[in-house]
Amino acid sequence: MKANKKLGLRSGATLGAAALVFSAGAAAADKELLDMLVKNGAINKTQYDTLLKKADLSKSDVKDAHAGNAHVVLGDKGLEIGSNDGNFKAAIGGRLQLDGQTNWNSHNLPNATGANTTNALADGTSLRRARLHAEGTFFKDYDYKFEYDFTRGPGTTAAGVTDAYIRWNALKPFALTVGQFKEPFSLEEATSNRFLTFIERNMAVNAFSDNPNAYRIGAMGSYSEQRWMAAGALMSESVGGSGLTCNAAGTCTNVNGATLYNTSSVNTNGNANRNNGSGNSSWDVTGRVAGRPWYNSETEFLHVGASGSYRTINNNYTGNSAFNNGGTLFAASIGNVDRTALLNTGNLTKGNKGAAGSYELDHYTRFGAESALVYGPFSMQGEYIRTGLQGNGYKDEVLEGYYGYGSYFLTGESRKYKASTGAWDRITPSRNFDMNGGWGAWEVAAGYDYLNLKDGTVNGGRAQTAKIGLNWYPNSHVRLMANYVHVLNIDTAPTASGTTVVNQPGARSQAFNNTNPDMLQFRAQVDF
User: At CA 416, angle to CA 411 and CA 420, rounded to 5?
Assistant: First the structure.
């Protein structure tokens, strides 16, 4: 009876005899007996298969019986291991982006003063990103991801953690995500930096989403299908300390080159320790809706979308009401190696709380509109983003920017779209590069970019640029990029005397006023 129970058999002389042989005999004898029983009609094929699977088979038989139950592939998430039924998956991957930049027309700056006389844009190379991640699925309905960027970790106070979340998918197409993840805002921000057309994000996205750190802690509900998606999130500040220190006068300095202004905590450990007067976190509600109202195929469609956000600001003050830390600023760079924030509002909270001449940014709102068209190898994309400021000393100032560009694949590919996020996905060449006539995929692009951080009491400057790009994809996981960027105009002049402003542009920013720098940017990228 124990043998019957172990094998899941019902009582019966024939099956009982088979069970006894299985428990006492060798695997070869077991199979021979089953072959004889099924041949003589004592058991049917279903019973035969059941007994065979539960038998104590030899190693070779076990290998044969389980062949095809799992797979290992190099996929979009890296080296992926998973069960064929989709219940369990695990992936390890990463990305490396090695950048170079060379400049001209930024030397002997006519407006440079003092220490900034020779402080032109720097040529050089840099490891822009170096990330490793682990992600996967367990019990089919749960996804997870953890990613660390080594260029943002040791040596800076901006934590290297990017994604760190769990997502529940049991109610597909609905999903619930908790942890740290990207805010649902902007087409270009929603697109992984691995799949951007140009090396750097455009200035408006850079200033209003990327530099404040789009990775934030919170909870998000989302819905997606082939034609449209929607997401809404309640979020707080991101993991780690700020990449910024500010004094009471509103002057802010990057820490060890960090460019992420992501937390108001005054402690060295940032959000890992919010005691000792750090105060509460800032909070925001952010949402995005995007879809494809015209859809002919995955290579012919129109994308439109909109984003909105309301964010409170945590301003920390000492016991005597002197400004200590927090606030916020908006800044944008143009280069990819020399990432000096030539446009920079400075901290928008400054001075003693309630004192004459002080400013306190209480909250700001963001709105974004986006559109893109794909028609075979040709595509176009554009976005407009505006940010409204509210608080003591502000009069509904509006900071804004927009960009537009077009791209064309010389080798006939189309931009790939990821419906679940309403963003761009990995390019797969029609034929990988090889020595037998394979060229990989080649893409050319041209665009215009504008950002205005100057309105009312705020003077962070404004600029407009034009750029062209050439991208080569030898295969789906390697990309070489080259961009030429020309600054059409940059206005970083100080506000006229007698006009009250929060901050004037710094000496370095003023040095570039009315200049037209040119730069060549390069990137070699591999992700796995």
Answer: 175
DSSP string, 453-502: EEETTEEEEEEEEEEEEEEEEEETTEEEEEEEEEEEEEE-PPPPTT---S
CB-count burial class (<10 Å; 0-12, 13-18, 19+) for 84? exposed
Say if CB 3 and CB 19 are below 8 A apart: yes
- To 10 degrees, the CA torsion angle through 151, 264, 262, 485? -100
Task: Quick: pLDDT tens for 264-277.
Answer: 777 666 676 677 66
Q: What angle do helix axes 13-24 and 27-39 make, rounded to 10 degrees?
A: 160
Calculate the average pLDDT of the chain: 84
Pairwise CA distance, residues 96 & 93, whole Å: 11
Residue with token string 């924030």 = 341
3-state secondary structure string across 12-71: CHHHHHHHHHHHHCCHHHHHHHHHHHHHCCCCCHHHHHHHHHHCCCCHHHHHHHHCCCEE
What is the pLDDT confidence band of residue 87, given thresholds at 50, 70 and 90?
A: confident
For the chain, percent of residues with pLDDT exceeding 90: 59
Residue 272: CB atoms within 10 A of its CB come to: 12
- Superfamily of the domain at 70-527: Porin (2.40.160.10)
Return d(Cα 233, Cα 176) in angstroms, integer: 10
* CB neighbours of residue 41 within 10 Å: 7
- Token reading at 500: 């009250």
What is the SS3 assignment for 7?
helix
- Cα–Cα distance measured from residue 385 to residue 203, given in angstroms and rounded to the nearest whole number: 10
Q: Which amino acid is at 35?
A: D
Q: What is the distance between the alpha carbons of residues 93 and 321, in angstroms, rounded to a whole number?
A: 48
Tokens 């006068």 found at: 249
ω into 494 cis (within 30 of 0): no
Q: How far apart are CA 37 and CA 41, in angstroms?
A: 6
- The secondary structure element, H or E, covering residue 366 is strand 360-375
Instruction: Answer yes or no: are the C-beta atoms of 184 and 288 closer than 8 Å.
Output: yes
Q: Helix (H, G, I), strand (E, B), or coil: what is residue 3?
A: helix
Are 279 and 314 in contact, with CB atoms under 8 Å apart?
A: yes
- The gap from C-alpha 454 to its chain's centroid, in whole angstroms, comes to 28
Amino acid at 232: G
CA-based nearest residue to 330, from 506, 455, 207: 207
Q: What does the buried/exposed string (b/e) look like for 367-386 if buried means 16 or more CB atoms within 10 Å of the residue's CB?
A: bbbbbbbbeebebebbbbbb
8 Å CB contact between 159 and 191:
no
What are the residue boundaries of the structural domains of the chain, listed by start? Answer: 2-66, 70-527
pTM score, whole prediction: 0.83
List CB contacts of 276: < 8 A, sequence separation 6 or more. Answer: 266, 267
Q: Please, what sign has the CA dihedral across residues 165, 228, 232, 201? A: positive
d(Cα 158, Cα 325) in Å, to the nearest integer?
A: 15
Nearest to 145 by CA among 193, 95, 77: 77
Lowest-confidence segment of 270-274, 288-292, 465-469, 515-519 by average pLDDT:
270-274
What is residue 76's DSSP assignment?
T
